[in-house]
# Entry
Amino acid sequence: MIDPDASEPRRTPPPPSSDEGPSLPLISSVPPRFPRRDSGWYQRYISSDAWKTNPARLAELEASGHRCRLCNASREEARLEVHHRTYRNLGCELAEDLTTLCSPCHRDVTTIQRAREYARSPVSSVDPAPTPSPHPLFDYRIDMGVPA
# Structure
């Protein structure tokens, strides 16, 4: 199925094999929606040889001069990571889908993105349950000598 909003067929990662997780990468005309097959799928992908040797990832590292795009730290100064700017082509990334960041900048960017996503998420309406009025912590009538 081709997405009518896309100018070209989008790429999606294939389903995971039964033994070791996803077999990566293949091209498909099925519109991708990050496949949340299980909570460890993305981590297995990022740890895979397919990601480590991904031509787009290597091209982005080369284009950045092996330096963080935000703070300009080199790989000698900090651990470099390649950040997904979009998950549209997850598993078949294009160089423009990625950006090189050092680990601290990657953490900060991810934190900001998650906060923005959280801020955009709708607030569910809650019907407040009627609560009985609380009993006073003390009976002021006793302290003032007022008969009960």
The helical segments are 41-47, 49-52, 55-63, 103-120, 140-144.
